[in-house]
Amino acid sequence: MKEAGFSQDAAKEFFFKHCPYVRHQPRQQAEELFRQILPSDMKDEVIIRLDKVMDKTLGDIYWQTKDENAENFPLVYQKADMAAINALLDMGFTSRAIDESYELNSFFAAEIENEPLAIDYENEIKRNVTEERELKSLDEGKEAKISLQKISVSNRHKFAGNDKEYALYNNGQTVLALLLQEGFMPETVRAVMESTVKDRDRLEKLMEECGRVKIAYQEIKDAPEIDEAGNMPDTYRAYAKIYMQRHHLNQLSFTDDCQIIKDMKEAEGYPDEFLRNALRVMCYGSGKKEDTVSEKEKALQRKAELKRQNDIERLIR
Question: Cα–Cα distance between 268 and 259 in angstroms, integer?
């Protein structure tokens, strides 16, 4: 673009507008990236006009150069894409949800505009992430098994009962402790829990539900300041964040929720209905849609929903 006689500012603005990778960067980072790729001997005052490209527009030059260098594009996006996918997996999102989002929002696909190449690239990224996490999971495995034994012994003394409902609750508490307190990857937790939860489908469901809980705690960690909260769930998250920081907690108990509600009432005098709605949205997700589950699951969901409503009323009181 510079060699065609366009000024540095004109080339830069076109670059910022049309390059997907740069377009989503903060302006300061985009400026730095542009400085890195600009030849050191090119100055604003130096304009070289070459007859063979005189009739080309900025767009002509940009798209031609982009096509000529398409094979190097994966190097630009690979590190950022792998870091983003790893972060989402660590937060508790399922691989299925991440894959769907990645396919719809890939900057590389938008940049390259070549579907077969984009698919090959995305598949390679997924393979690399999987291989990387499998190796890390193997490294964590021994330590995770030791933690599992300690948590199992601790939970055995905390809770009583041997029925199916107790077992499910106990397993859920164990998974959350491994994820939130010990900080193991979901893949590692799933692997060590296979010896406890023999049913593969039940284990996957358990991991998915605990993943949603982990996401909820991440949302608390990312909550805005109280006076910046724009809705009911964010207001609860803001108070919960302060409470968890004050008491150095990774998880909240029913007693903790009661205290958070008390803090909200004393600080701002929120009406009971506001608190009910905040808790309903924030703490007690709706789970699967009714039309995707069996009659037995629907009955269990209705029973669970009744318990949630009772829990919320107990918290408000």
Answer: 14
